[in-house]
Design a protein that fits this description.
Helices cover 82% and strands 0% of the residues. It is mostly helical. One of its GO terms (molecular function) is transmembrane transporter activity.
């Protein structure tokens, strides 16, 4: 919050980001509501839910394109204008009676807009690195993470309530989304003179368009080069393994919790659906609290120690589910775990942004996030297989084994950082 209040250029960047993020979040939930009005509602809702994950899988392309951009700040401005135009187009199309061709085009618009948002987020990294000092980066990233988590938490509820208040007038709702991107564009456009002399604004690529086939080849060769370059930064590689372990354990834990709610009625708060929603909300609140904590106040907690605590709390959750099945211990641990993750994420991001070269930061971080995101479905599949093939208890014991491995790696990372 301190960086936001005292750094004018950072404040302008984040305000534009938050406004456009709110527009995207509002529409994502409303699009699912719109899908319910399709002739085959179940199929449409399923497609909308699956398609919502596609932009995350395309992060590596977004990062590559971000590093190919000549003027990073001007690229951010252009993306906001482009997204506003997309939602104006969407507002016109959504006025038609629901049909599969309209639904398909709306899906494509939503995918393109989300992908453009991912591209903008990677482009902004170089700009933020220019306007925020290295000492303030962790706090800045924590603030962004906290506000982003808050928007994700309340955006769906606000979107569902707003579309109901508008009597399901999707055209008007689409126009409101377009207005959010216009507002973000105007903030960046009016302030453009303040960013003109940044290193990221003066950076120029001189590579001409090579043709579709050669550009695709260049993308793959560049991605492999960036992956090899990533491995040369031992600290960043260590963080990648650490994040992968945390994601693997976290996704497995989430899967097993849902299965445990079915078996153990003592874990329920009311009913199954309410319990799932409550636990997710508690974790989100914890992450928000952790993200908003001034990072300079937790310098006594090293990153490896923070990582150890995150994994250790998952061990306590596993022990509780195996022997006690106490729902209040579970909620407390989920909240604490959320706070610890909220502290861990921005600190690691700040370390990586500081260490990585500016001209490749988007590409390298996109490779980083692509690798660690692959562990999310991996954890869910492994522990769901154990639970369904044997028992939920055996699956929890399997998770304990993964937790022990994670704790051992946290100690390895601590020694590596100590030597560095």
């Amino acid at each position: 919050m301190t960086v936001f209040l005292h750094n004018r250029r950072y404040r302008l960047l984040t305000l534009a980001t938050f406004i456009s993020m709110l527009g995207s979040t509002l529409f994502n939930i409303v699009f699912v509501i719109y899908a319910r009005g399709m002739p085959n509602a179940k199929l449409a809702v399923s497609i909308a839910s699956v398609v919502a994950t596609i932009p995350f899988l395309l992060d590596i392309i977004a990062g590559y394109l971000a590093d190919e951009a000549n003027n990073h700040y001007r690229s951010m401005v252009g993306v906001k204008f482009f997204q506003a135009a997309l939602f104006l187009l969407l507002s016109g199309l959504i006025a038609f009676r629901p049909s599969w061709w309209v639904f398909t085009v709306l899906l494509l618009i939503n995918i393109v807009s989300d992908f453009a948002g991912s591209f903008s987020s990677f482009v902004s990294l170089a700009v933020i690195k220019d306007v925020v000092t290295a000492n303030d980066l962790a706090e800045a990233r924590g603030f962004e993470s906290g506000v982003g988590s808050t928007i994700s938490l309340v955006g769906g509820l606000v979107g569902a309530g707003l579309i109901a208040a508008l009597h399901y007038n999707y055209v008007l709702f689409g126009l409101l989304n377009a207005v959010s991107f216009v507002a973000a564009f105007l903030i960046l456009w009016v302030a453009r003179q303040q960013f003109r002399q940044l290193r990221s604004s003066l950076f120029q690529h001189h590579t001409a368009f090579l043709g579709v086939r050669r550009e695709i080849h260049h993308f793959f060769t560049t991605s492999m080069k960036n992956f090899k370059l990533l491995k040369t930064f031992s600290t960043v590689t260590g963080f990648m393994v650490a994040f992968s372990i945390v994601n693997f354990i976290g996704s497995g834990q989430s899967t097993l919790l849902n299965l445990s709610y079915i078996q153990e009625k003592r874990l329920l708060f009311g009913n199954f659906g309410y319990t799932v929603a409550l636990i997710d909300m508690v974790e989100s609140v914890g992450m928000i609290l952790g993200s908003f904590t001034p990072m300079k106040r937790v310098t006594w907690l090293s990153i490896p120690a923070n990582l150890t605590l995150v994994i250790g709390v998952s061990g306590v959750i596993s022990a509780n589910l195996l022997w006690l099945q106490n729902r209040y211990i579970l909620v407390t641990c989920i909240l604490v775990n959320g706070v610890l993750i909220g502290l861990l994420n921005p600190r690691i991001q700040a370390e990586m942004i500081t260490e990585l070269p500016e001209e490749s930061i988007g590409s390298i971080l996109s490779v980083f996030y692509t690798v660690i995101q692959l562990t999310v479905p991996g954890g869910a599949v492994v522990f769901a297989f154990l639970a369904n093939g044997w028992t939920v208890a055996i699956a929890w014991f399997g998770l304990v084994v993964a937790i022990v491995v994670g704790l051992l790696y946290a100690e390895v990372l601590r020694r590596r950082l100590a030597r560095a």
